[in-house]
Amino acid sequence: MTTISSIMQDSLRANNYYVLISAITLLYLSVWFFSPLRSIPTIGGSSLPILSYFTARKFVHHAKSMVREGYAKYRGSVFKIAMLDQWLVVVTGPSMIEELRKRPDTELSFNEGIGEFLQTRYTLGQDVHHNTYHIDIIREKLTRSIPTILSDVIDELALAVGEHIPTRDGSWVRVNVLQKARDIIARASNRVFVGLPACRNTEFLDLAVSFTLDVVQDRATINRFPNLVKPIVGRMVGNSKRNLKRAIPHLRPIIEERRRKMAEYGEDWSDKPNDMLQWILEEAVVRQTSDEAIVQRILLVNFAAIHTSSNSITHAIYHLAERPEYLQPLREEIEPIIREEGWTKAAMAKMWKLDSFLRESQRYNGINLFSVMRKAQKDVMLSNGVTIPRGTLVAAAAESTHHDDILYKNAEVFDPFRFARQREAEGESTKHQFANTSVEYVPFGHGKHACPGRFFAANELKAMLAYLVLNYDMRFDEAHPTRPANVYMGYSIIPSPTAEVLFRKRR
User: Fold this and answer.
1) What is the distance between the alpha carbons of residues 357 and 417, in angstroms, rounded to a whole number?
2) Measuring CA to CA, which residue among 317, 280, 314, 272 is closest to residue 299?
3) H or E stretch including 27?
4) Count of CB atoms within 10 A of residue 72's CB?
5) Measured between alpha carbons, how far is residue 415 from residues 16, 324, 330, 360, 444 in Å?
6) Can you tell me the distance from the alpha carbon of 448 to that of 101, in angstroms, rounded to the nearest whole number?
7) What is the pLDDT of residue 244?
8) CB 10 within 8 A of CB 48
9) Which of 187, 238, 237 lies closest to 209 in space, CA to CA?
10) Beta 500-505 vs 472-475: how paired, if at all?
11) CB neighbours of 46 closer than 8 A, spacing ≥ 6?
């Protein structure tokens, strides 16, 4: 009897288990069947539950071709792509990008959108995700300070370039560009972020670069899992958090000294630093936040600066190394301007060809496949009648937009002085500058949420490229003279991380 009873109980438990699984499956299918997302066309495979997972796997390695396919089929409308953790609705064409820009954050939120893409709650911390006061500091204080701080950036660039590209006796030296670009950008940027001597502390700079790479890696790991388990995975990965803990001892003595001076002298004193650390510290005092929170913000701005700028300058250098004949027209523009203006913001503004070279490189290569990221805070009906359900990620097809022949003549051709020519037209002198955004040019985003640090980044990149052009010859090895292909991983676009460029002192 005991055996029969035990068998019956096991059978009942098994039946209950199957009933539960069936109920969950039925609920999932019902939600999918009635979701407004079903009416949005899918690219890359099936949108059916479970089968869409295989579409998502395809996206990891074939994202570029999938987005290009969707753009060609549905230009001026929307399509959706399955990612490993959720659906992404992609808007295409200038009018749809403009609508995305105009929608208020109560409908399509920038902060929640970028939070989902970067997983900021786990990679950068809850405080950074919810309290974004650093954006106002970057937009206002950093941007306004460019004329006064640019000379320090250029001073540090010259020293860092000499150390990381050690050419001697007119001989060629091989340089892994992406790796050295990160080191040089980290050092030059931190001259403005934390000042001397911390910006030359190699241990701190290595941590800043490692933090940047770890945020990217942690984000990719977390995004492989559904939202239900992301909090668990987020606590487990923690590479960026470990680097935060290691960075605190490097900056805490500086923070404590500045706190002491603020307490003693008030808002101003003779040698008061004019850098990001000081601006964040002053805000932190008002908010009564900890030293750890201050260091967290410093690493955050390092991530924003190092990740995008090192990729951008590497793309540009690869183009120059493939076509060294572009060096001469750039030198002919830069040299007389520097003689007249010196290494100033005013000088950078006059370098139209250099500006165009960087803008075209960023158009041609890109930072990510997507831009203008948003997350629906409620069900949102677009002007074309498509409904975006609450909680859905939405983004613009940036790379496809930049390769649209309707928007750019010969869009698949790298034309370095494309935008310099356009600026010569009546009333177009400012529209096509490197840092300017539009519905046709969105690597920095567009509208009020466009990258707040893009003006600093543009001047830093122009200064670095101008310095390299004036002081170095560069080319690829004769055995591999063409530009290496970009690497596409999901929506990320990365210049070849292994390619080497030959540099020598200019003759």
Assistant:
1) 6
2) 280
3) helix 2-34
4) 12
5) 66, 14, 14, 7, 20
6) 8
7) 84
8) no
9) 187
10) antiparallel
11) 52, 54, 55
The structure tokens listed for 437 are 């955004």
How confident is the model at residue 15, as a pLDDT?
A: 60
Roughly how many angstroms between the first and final C-alpha of the chain, as a whole number?
Answer: 98
DSSP assigned state of 326: G
Helices (H), 323-453: 327-341, 345-350, 352-365, 398-402, 418-423
- Name every residue whose Cβ is closer than 8 Å to that of residue 64 and which is 6 or more positions away in sequence: 369, 399, 488
- Pairing type for strands 393-397 and 387-388 reads unpaired
| Residue located via tokens 């460019």 | 146
Residue 87 is classified by DSSP as E
- DSSP alpha helices (H): ranges in 49-193? 51-74, 94-102, 110-118, 120-123, 126-130, 133-136, 143-164, 177-193
The residue behind tokens 């869009």 is: 411
- d(CA 463, CA 471) in angstroms, rounded, equals 12
User: φ and ψ at 472, to 5 degrees?
Assistant: -135, 150
Count Cα atoms within 13 angstroms, Cβ side, for 108.
Answer: 24
* Distance separating alpha carbons of residues 146 and 152, to the nearest angstrom: 10
pLDDT of residue 336: 98
| Residues 288/290/291/293 CA torsion (nearest 10 deg) | -110
Secondary structure (DSSP) of 479-500: TS-SPPPPEEETTEEE--SS-E
Residue whose tokens read 């890109």: 366
pLDDT along the chain (507 residues), means of 10: 59 56 53 72 80 81 95 97 91 97 96 90 83 92 96 97 92 96 97 97 95 87 83 80 88 95 89 95 90 92 94 98 98 98 97 98 96 96 95 97 97 98 91 96 96 97 98 94 94 95 95
Looking at residue 123, its pLDDT comes to 83
